[in-house]
């Protein structure tokens, strides 16, 4: 009985010893692995300190950011990921021309089917072919609307 207790104690000591002797991954090795993963996003970077990956930079969307964090957490030896990165705000293109004003100008030139009303570089632009008399009439009608800056790029024939 004493012999089996001694063997069990020895086995227990050996198992604890082998667990505590487990090779610890160095920050340098973790840095190399983490950098390899992060290079897929040129706007991001990572630094590993004491087993924690510190992610910084910008991502196009939340999904790509979450995927990067998951990839870093999957590296054996990385204890945690500190997220200091941001997601780029989507760029919203807003026309400098109020749609109501554009519609008023379109209505003002509806009697001239060859004239098109467009927004070009944020400004109302009239294009097409008109006669000299039509050009004067269009200009007077549009100016009366006080629509702001209007480019008259139509051809007068």
First-residue to last-residue Cα separation = 116 Å
Which parts are unreliable, with pLDDT below 50 for 5 consecutive residues or more?
Answer: 6-13
Find the count of extended strands (DSSP E, 2+ residues).
8
Oligomer: single chain
The helix tally amounts to 5
Structure in words:
Strand 2 (52-59), helix 3 (62-73) and strand 3 (80-83) form a beta-alpha-beta unit. This protein is 42% helix and 25% strand. Strands 1, 2, 3 and 4 form a four-stranded mixed beta sheet that branches. Strands 5, 6, 7 and 8 form a four-stranded mixed beta sheet that branches. The protein has helices at residues 2-20, 27-38, 62-73, 99-108, 132-144; strands at 44-49, 52-59, 80-83, 86-87, 115-120, 123-130, 150-152, 155-156. The chain is an alpha/beta fold.
């Amino acid at each position: 009985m004493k012999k089996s207790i001694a063997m069990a104690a020895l086995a227990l000591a050996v198992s604890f010893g082998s667990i505590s002797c487990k090779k610890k991954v160095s920050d340098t090795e973790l840095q190399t692995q983490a950098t390899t993963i992060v290079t897929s996003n040129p706007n991001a970077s990572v630094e590993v300190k004491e087993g924690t990956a510190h992610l910084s930079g910008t991502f196009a969307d939340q999904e790509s950011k979450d995927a990067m964090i998951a990839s870093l957490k999957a590296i054996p030896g990385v204890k945690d990921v500190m997220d200091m990165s941001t997601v780029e705000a989507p760029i919203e293109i807003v026309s400098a021309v109020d749609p109501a004003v554009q519609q008023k100008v379109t209505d003002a030139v509806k009697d001239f089917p060859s004239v098109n009303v467009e927004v070009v570089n944020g400004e109302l632009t009239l294009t097409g072919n008109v006669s000299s008399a039509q050009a004067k009439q269009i200009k007077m009608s549009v100016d009366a609307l006080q629509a702001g800056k209007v480019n008259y790029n139509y051809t007068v024939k």
